[in-house]
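Notes continue from the previous slide.

Worked example: a multi-chain complex. Inputs as given:
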Amino acid sequence: MTSKINTYKRFTSIFLLIFSLFIGFSNNLSASEPLEDTIEHGHSADTAVAAHDAHGHDAHEANGPIDISAIAIEHVSDSHSWHFWGEGHDAVAAPLPVILKGNNGIVFFMSSEFHHDNEGKTIVEKNGERFVMFEEKVYYANETPNEYGQYVTLTIDEKEVSVSNAAPLDFSITKNVAQMFISVIVIMWIFMSIAKAYKTQGVTSAPRGKQSFFEPLILFVRDDIAKGNIGHGSEKFVPYLLTVFFMILINNVFGMIPIGANLTGNIAFTLVLSVATMIVTNINGNKNYWSHIFLPHAPKAIWPILIPIEVVGILTKPFALMMRLFANMTAGHIIIISLVGLIFVFKTIYIAPVSVAFALFIDVLECLVAFLQAYVFTMLTALFIGSAVADHNEDGAHTTDDDHATAGH
Amino acid sequence: MTSTFILASLIEPAIGLIFWTTITFILLLVLLGKFAWKPILTAIKTREKGIEDALASAENALNDMRELKSNNEKILAEARAERDNLLKEARDTKDAIIAEAKAKSQAEADRIMSSAREQITNEKNAAVAELKNQVATLSIEIAEKILRSELSSDEKQKALVNNLMKDVNLN
């Protein structure tokens, strides 16, 4: 029986690996096209950077030194329109709805009304309020433009440009939000059709199609992640863990598609997921969990040190989850664009094979990371839940533990 | 210069995305939980239970078969023993019948023999008696004839009587 399970596990992991390699390969075949896109993109970011950096120099001068880090960070950041290719006024981008909670109530318009302006030069007037977009952030516009035609007040010190304008609350359907809606529709379609397949084909027939790919993953989450870390009573948490796992996995994969958005590498997204984990963990925490925090098995003298540490621990666990997923996904994207950016830093086409080779390697690695991070997030969530619902108090009180065990079984 | 500015925006969670993610995630959790995970997990569980039951019933069937086989062997052995018994009994009965028949026929033969012997004895006695009668008759006739011839003269009669008397005495 055990050997069977082991073989099954091995099969699952090999399958995951092959799948991730396959995705990576197809991604890189198509990556040759978006390379051009990135090049153009790089230029535009460069011009944009030059516009605020140079201050007084020609804003469209593109031959200055390229700030790769700015390009990379812009690449992984959220935006108000879904950019495909082209730059400036030639850019091909899907406009997305901008929803703002201003002083006079909720304002709704399409991001195309900014005309691809990202430097605070184009004013959109709605509901008696005037808005400008600067670095993908919407601000209330100044009455008069500054010397570069920008309706924002910029404060520039040595390393930082900061905007002192007030900003409305921004509930826009940004690129990441749109990406999330698409992925949610995809996830719902996948799993509801699988659920339907189970209903129509019955449970006795062998799984086929999507079913046969996703069933091992579902079983993996249920048996290895949930049962392995939570143990008795894990069934209750399986739906949550499955949702988290596939939400992260599908969005990781979407993030690797060249025009896809970097949703899982956005801290707001990972924040929500880790807060959800924190809530699920703490509302299910049993007596042992809370007594471990507030009545630790230690001399009372060090309780004043221990209790704050344990209380902070409630927050640091989900915080680590949030940072891990965000940093892993963002780092992968930044590495890839940095490698491609080498071509523009060295200003030679001969570096391209090296860039492409390394980017390919990182892409394949990212495919593994897409699965790995979904697994790690889900596994740690299960681990935290498991520690909160565990019957045993790990350090000590063995006699009572045994009593509990005998009484329980 | 802008890089640090944008970097700050990178690690600063946007309220809009938090808002939409929260709503979407909760909706996804509820909808998937109701329409996907519940039927899928139930189906998988049902199938696992089915497989478990099938394995258990196969095991049971195997045990039953084993039991049946051992029963069959027992019955077979019993049948064999029964047959041997029957054969033995039949043989015994046959022997008994033969022995009885033999005894009976022996007895019959003995009876017939004894009755034959008895009859023979009777017949013999009768024959002897008749013979005695006939001998007596013949003897009388012969004696008459002899007497007639012998008694034709006196000497002869006397001599005869003497002789006869001698014979009779001798006899």
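Summary box: The longest helix of chain A spans residues 2-54. The CA atoms of residues 231 and 386 of chain A lie 7 Å apart.
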